[in-house]
Amino acid sequence: MKRRELIKRLEKAGFIFKEHGHDHDKYVRGSDTEEVPRHREVNERLARHIIKKWGL
Asked: How far apart are CA 55 and CA 9, in angstroms?
């Protein structure tokens, strides 16, 4: 999955960008935190896990 597509789904669910990490960007929604790898393509298994975890 493209990184940008995953970020759009997170933002639609209410997550906002918080900070850049070393290899990841951090998105938060209240007390929920998700780190998204900074690659053009996100591993399909990881993307499915994130989508399922937050019910996107």
From this structure: 10
